[in-house]
């Protein structure tokens, strides 16, 4: 694989304390309201685009070894939102910029060997994007036509096709979920084109990343512009 000039080489020498100070579970930068709830991450997935409007980026997986970040997978080309990387919302197709935890996974297909908690989904599994719903930006299970939210403002995970054969949830805007700030952001299988805001890579690469992710090492994803 060709080495990308966009690799975040500074991470190779970044100490654990430096990243831990900026990472809050489910959030982007250090937030005084959540101090004391931080975990020092031992795994990092970096997604780095060349400009805010770029619809592709380089995804690389890093593992902390004796206080330094060592590349273990990638870089691979990833598709991001059609509006690039920036401030996400329900009215844009931005991929959210920031550092977010990776705590759970799902897919239409059976578990691919990930160590994250995994849910195999059907057409009764939804991700709620109804800004008026108390279930906004959460998973909810209900048969189509019976859900307690606007189904047109939600995503039927089982109907999405191969892009959701396997996926990892990006914990943007989840704890708490702020209505309108964006929902349903995943690392999923690429369809070979920009996304509505998710990060997408080829299936084999996704399987490798998902099998590598270890919840005991508090993995995070860092989405940014070089």
From TrEMBL:
Short name of one Pfam family: YkuD
Keywords from the named record: Signal
Keyword Signal among record annotations: yes
UniProt xrefs under InterPro entries: LD_TPept_cat_dom
Domain L,D-TPase catalytic intervals: 82-220
Span of the signal peptide: 1-22
Entry keyword Signal: yes
Protein name (record): L,D-transpeptidase
Organism field: Amycolatopsis samaneae
């Amino acid at each position: 694989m060709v080495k990308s000039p966009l690799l975040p080489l500074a991470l190779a020498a970044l100490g654990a304390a430096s990243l831990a100070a900026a990472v809050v579970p489910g959030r982007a930068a250090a937030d005084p309201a959540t101090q004391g709830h931080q975990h020092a991450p031992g795994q990092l997935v970096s997604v780095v685009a060349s400009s805010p409007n770029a619809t592709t980026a380089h995804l690389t997986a890093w593992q902390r070894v004796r206080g330094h970040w060592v590349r273990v997978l990638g870089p691979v080309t990833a598709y991001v939102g059609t509006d690039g990387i920036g401030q996400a919302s329900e009215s844009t197709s931005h991929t959210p910029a920031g550092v977010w935890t990776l705590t759970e996974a799902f897919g239409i297909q059976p578990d691919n060997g990930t160590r994250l908690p995994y849910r195999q989904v059907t057409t009764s599994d939804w991700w709620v994007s109804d800004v008026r719903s108390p279930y906004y930006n959460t998973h909810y299970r209900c048969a189509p036509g019976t859900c307690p939210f606007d189904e047109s403002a939600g995503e039927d995970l089982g109907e999405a096709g191969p892009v959701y054969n396997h996926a990892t949830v990006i914990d943007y805007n989840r704890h708490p979920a702020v209505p309108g700030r964006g929902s349903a952001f995943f690392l999923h299988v690429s369809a070979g084109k920009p996304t509505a805001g998710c990060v997408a890579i080829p299936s084999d690469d996704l399987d490798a990343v998902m099998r590598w992710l270890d919840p005991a090492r508090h993995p995070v994803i860092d989405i940014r512009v070089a």
